[in-house]
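As a warm-up, study this chain.
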Amino acid sequence: MIFSVPGINYDKIYFINSLGVENLDAREMSARLCSWMQDELVMRNSRGYVFGLSGGIDSAVVAALCKTACGENVLGLIMPCHSSPRDEKDAELIAESFSVKTKTIILDHIFDLMVAKLTGKEYNPGQKDTAIINIKPRLRMITSYFFAARNQYLVAGTSNRSELTVGYFTKHGDGGSDLLPIGKLVKSQVCELAEYLGVPKSIIEKPPSAGLWKGQTDESEMGITYRELDEYILTGNADHKVKDIINNLVNRSAHKRALPVLPPF
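Now compare it with the structure written out below.
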């Protein structure tokens, strides 16, 4: 174990070619995940899954797993909010590739109203104000749970282990879900699973981005690459600069992985 933070399971992930951990065929991993997702539906008396379809590799893998696990009872929500037009096109490509039903909810207007109401100013797309930017994933969470309630579905989150470890998600935004199908897979393992599941190559090779502002990418915001992060999580190997960045991110985001605290008396 490299570090320990409440809410993170540091058990080894057994996967094919995964940075020093024991191997498991991608086909079997997919089968196990889908079987687990089917069991969760039964235990929670639910009919299917709803998930955000962002156009990225994580949402693509979750879409494929949901479709395999429960057939027609899946709904991919495309929720642009001052987003890149490419992301919406990529989301549609993923939906077409796996025959997933979708619904597009454009959140630009409600986001603009929220920003104006809270700040008294119009939204400035070039402003990197996280208090404002995080409204986007929180609106998507609200939308996801609306359709989950209407359809008796569960919300499948799209965060992977790499993101969860360093807190690269929005609290009560994309961090809000009923289960995390790829939550035990680091980013490189998600890529391997994506290849097995048949995710389009253009999606696999697309630079990871939360799409929070124009030109934003995960790696530039974190200050490290996913390769460096994955290797540290799985093996403990990294240079001192990378270790310091990761440990700082872990410590700063500990509150995201913990339940609300109660009084100690």
